[in-house]
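Data card: per-record layout.
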Amino acid sequence: MCCASTCPAQDRTRPAPAPIDPGRRTVPRTVEPDCEARLVESLPDGSKIVLIGGAEYRAITADQMRRLLRAEAEAQQIRRERELLSEQISLLKQALELSRQSEARADEQIRLLTEQNDSFRQTLEKANTVIKRGRVDGFFNRPVVQIVTKGVLPLLAAILSARN
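The structure for this 164-residue chain is written out next.
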């Protein structure tokens, strides 16, 4: 059996204590003159409550100690995994925030480009209106210019080609 806590009776530099007689409820005084150990209670799981030097300790079996050590190792592994998961959660939160900021910038850029496109379209429509109603369009729509372009120019072209 092992004690869950240490007392002066478990100091490794001292000689091993005499075995406890099952019929006897106290340890012989050869262990430590001022440290008497006595069995307080035997528990159903095989462990014992022992009173040593006025303090109660729980003595456990080697099998129980192995199970406790395995459980402690598993708990340590779970703590490490939890720490890693916490770090990953933190990094994912940062990535999410950066993604939201990027999305906001992209939305702003789309809004600005849409405004620029609308402005360009309005400018183009105004330019087309000015060209249709402008001097150039008005000049070619005059009846005299229409007669010259449709009648006189083909006649001149025919005369010039006949000379050659």
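Known properties of this structure: The mean pLDDT is 79. Helices lie at 62-133, 135-140, 143-163.

See the next section for split statistics.
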